[in-house]
Specification:
Distance between the termini: 63 Å
Strand order of the largest sheet: 8-9-11-10-12-13
Radius of gyration: 21 Å
Oligomer: single chain
Strand content: 15-25%
Helix content: 25-40%
Number of helices: 10
Order of helices and strands: HEEEHHHEEEEHHEEHEEHEEHH
Shape: globular
Length: 312
C-alpha cells in the first residue's frame, strides 16, 4: 500500500486484502478471500478466519501514514497464530489461564457444536486469549485440549468476568460499559456476577444490549414504565449501528434488547420487522413503514407482566 489510497471503505478493504494476501504468501501462508455473514474475510489455511471488516475498522481510525504499520501488526497476528499452532501445545495450567468465553452470533457457530445457546440470536463459545491474538476453539481444537468442556466453560467465564472495564458512563438514563477487551459484551453470560460487580440494584431484573464485543449497555426498568424504558434503550442502540454511521468494533454482535430476570432467564424484547408487518396486515392494520427507519419492539411476556401493567 505504497500509493495514497482512496478513503472509500471498499477501496480500503480491497487494498488491505491484497496487501495481506501478498505478505502472507511471501511467508508461505495460504490465504483466500471469502464473504461471511459479517462481511469480507481471509480464510487462513488451517487457522480459521481473519475478518477484513475488523482490519478496515482499524485502518479507518488512523491516518493514511499509519496504515502500513497497522497492517503489519495484523500480519504479525496471523503469523503468530500459525506459529502457535505449530509450536508446543500449552499445558493445562496455561490453558486455564488463557481460556475465555465469548458471545457470537448464532449464525456463525458452524463448527462449534459444543456452543451454548444464550438467546435466539447469540451463542456462547470458548476462546484462547494469546498475548498477540484470540483463537476461537472449534470442536476439533476443543477435543485436542483433553479438558472437560464443563471445566473450560466454568473457568473461561471466570476469566471473562475479570476482563478489565476501561470506561463507564451514562447516556440518557442508559449505563454504558466499554473497554478494549474483546470480551466486554460476553460478561453478560454471567449476569448475576456482573450486576454484583457493577453494584447495580437489579432485584427486579435488567434491560440490556450488546451491540458489539466491546460494549455492554443497560437500564434498570421501572414497573409501569416498561415501554418508556424499552424506547430509551432502543433509541441509543439504534445509534450504535452501521446504518447510523457507527463502526462497531468487530462488527455488529446483536441488534436485540434483552430482559434479564433474577432467575437467570434471558428474554428478547425486539421482534422481526417483516414478521411484525405481516401480522399487522393480517390484523387489518394499514401500515407502510420503512424498515430502515422503524424500530420493532416486541416485549416478552415475562417483562410485560412485571413492567408494563400499572399498579403491579
Amino acid at each position: 500500500m505504497t500509493n495514497t489510497p482512496s478513503m472509500d471503505r471498499d477501496s480500503i478493504l480491497n487494498g488491505a486484502e491484497g496487501y495481506l494476501m501478498e505478505e502472507l504468501q511471501r511467508r508461505g501462508i495460504s490465504a483466500d478471500p471469502v464473504l461471511t455473514d459479517s462481511g469480507k474475510a481471509l480464510r487462513i489455511a488451517g487457522q480459521g478466519m481473519l475478518s477484513m471488516e475488523n482490519v478496515a475498522d482499524d485502518l479507518m481510525v488512523g491516518s493514511v501514514a499509519e496504515w502500513e504499520p497497522r497492517l503489519q501488526r495484523w500480519l504479525e497476528v496471523v503469523v503468530s497464530t500459525v506459529e502457535s499452532e505449530t509450536g508446543p501445545a500449552p499445558i493445562r495450567e496455561e490453558i486455564m489461564t488463557m481460556i475465555r468465553t465469548r458471545l457470537v452470533p448464532f449464525a456463525e457457530i458452524q463448527g462449534y457444536g459444543y456452543a451454548r445457546r444464550f438467546s435466539d440470536d447469540l451463542s456462547l463459545i470458548l476462546c484462547l486469549d494469546f498475548p498477540t491474538h484470540v483463537a476461537k476453539l472449534t470442536d476439533d481444537a476443543l477435543a485436542e485440549l483433553g479438558i472437560a468442556t464443563e471445566d473450560l466453560f466454568a473457568q473461561g467465564q471466570k476469566n471473562t468476568n475479570s476482563e478489565p472495564i476501561d470506561e463507564m458512563f451514562n447516556e440518557e438514563d442508559v449505563r454504558f460499559i466499554t473497554g478494549d477487551s474483546m470480551f466486554i459484551a460476553s460478561k453478560a453470560a454471567d449476569m448475576s456476577t456482573l450486576v454484583q460487580q457493577l453494584g447495580v440494584n437489579a432485584q427486579d431484573g435488567l434491560l440490556f444490549a450488546v451491540p458489539d464485543r466491546a460494549t455492554f449497555m443497560y437500564r434498570v426498568p421501572t414497573p409501569g414504565s416498561g415501554v418508556a424504558d424499552l424506547i430509551g434503550i432502543s433509541q441509543l442502540l439504534r445509534s450504535l449501528s452501521p446504518e447510523a454511521g457507527y463502526e462497531n468494533p468487530g462488527c455488529v454482535l446483536s441488534r436485540n434488547i434483552y430482559y434479564w430476570a433474577p432467575d437467570g432467564t434471558i428474554e428478547p424484547q425486539m421482534g422481526n420487522f417483516r414478521e411484525t408487518m405481516d401480522e399487522a396486515t393480517r390484523a387489518g392494520a394499514q401500515v407502510d413503514w420503512p424498515e430502515d427507519g422503524t424500530v420493532t419492539l416486541r416485549p416478552g411476556p415475562i417483562f410485560s407482566a412485571k413492567f408494563m401493567q400499572a399498579g403491579r
